[in-house]
Amino acid sequence: MIKKELLSEVSESKKFIAFNVIAQIIKLGASIMTIFSFAYFIKMLYNGMSMPQNEMIFNIVVIIICMIIRFVCTALSSMASFYASAEVKKKLRVRMYDKLTRLGSAYHEKIATSEVVQVFVEGVDQLETYYTQS
Hints:
By secondary structure, this protein is an all-alpha fold. The chain has one domain (4-133). It has 4 helices and no strands. The protein has helices spanning 4-9, 14-46, 53-103, 113-133. Helix 2 (14-46) packs antiparallel against helix 3 (53-103) and helix 3 packs antiparallel against helix 4 (113-133). The longest helix is centred in the middle third of the chain and has 51 residues, at 53-103. It starts with a helix and ends with a helix. The mean pLDDT is 82.
C-alpha cells in the first residue's frame, strides 16, 4: 500500500506510479486470457473432443499475443518503477542536502558527518526499494 504522505512529498512521480499500475492491470488481463485459453484447450483434450484446426490456431495465437502483452507490460512496469524511484531519490537527496547546509556545522557536535550521510543514503535506498515494489 502506498502512503499518501509520501506521495504528496514527491508528486512528480505520480504519473509513473499510475503508469505502473495501468501496465500491471493490463498484464493481469493478459494473464487471465492466457489461463482461459489454456483451460479451454485442456478441457477439449480431456473430454476427448477434437478441436477444429481454426479453433486451435486461434487459441495458439491468443496465447502468443497474451504472452507478448505480458512481456511488454512487465518491461514498461519496470521502467515506470525505475523512473518513479529516480524522481523520489533525486528530490529527497536535494532536500536532505539543503537541510544539512541550513544546519551548518552545528550538527558536528552531536553526530559525525559520515553517520549523517550513511543514514541519508540508506533511507533513500530503502525508499527506492519501496517504490519499485509497490
